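Try this one yourself first.
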């Protein structure tokens, strides 16, 4: 199961998930973050509002707050990186390396999908052009078939006796 969520158009991780990874209590992680709040601007970390939290809990099939009194903090990729300087332990550093690798994999998957989408769009536009060309060719063929099936009205050449004179 993934621990990375998409909230406010950003990939983030919950404070409780990070605390579990770092093997510390969530409240201890949050204490360190609050003590070093100047290291965590809004693009590194933010607190979920009530509706975001409820939506997230429904996505991960959790109906209760699990004893939480406050709404959770979520950390962006840069916030997770900053946590390693706040939680200065070997475990924090190792976890941070793994989390960075996961974020990079997700970014690469997104880029790969973007390139694939662009290639598909190019193929679609080629097919549309080919369809138009084929329609034009079939239109010309239809015109030729119609001309061949029409009787040709030709005047006879040569001597023809008058049938009126006898």
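Now uncover the answer:
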């Amino acid at each position: 199961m993934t621990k990375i969520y998409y909230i406010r158009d950003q990939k983030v991780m919950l404070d409780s998930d990070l605390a579990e990874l770092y093997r510390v209590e969530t409240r201890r992680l949050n204490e360190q973050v609050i003590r070093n709040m100047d290291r965590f601007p809004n693009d590194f970390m933010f607190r979920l509002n009530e509706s975001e939290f409820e939506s997230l809990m429904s996505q991960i099939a959790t109906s209760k707050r699990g004893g939480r009194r406050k709404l959770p903090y979520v950390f962006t990729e840069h916030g997770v990186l900053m946590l390693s300087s706040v939680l200065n332990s070997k475990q924090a550093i190792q976890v941070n390396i793994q989390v960075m690798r996961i974020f990079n994999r997700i970014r690469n998957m997104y880029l790969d999908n973007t390139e694939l989408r662009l290639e598909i769009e190019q193929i679609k536009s080629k097919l549309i052009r080919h369809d138009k060309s084929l329609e034009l060719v079939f239109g010309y063929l239809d015109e030729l078939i119609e001309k061949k099936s029409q009787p040709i009205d030709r005047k006879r050449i040569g001597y023809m006796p008058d049938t009126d004179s006898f």
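Discussion: The chain has five helices and four strands. The first helix runs from residue 15 to 22.
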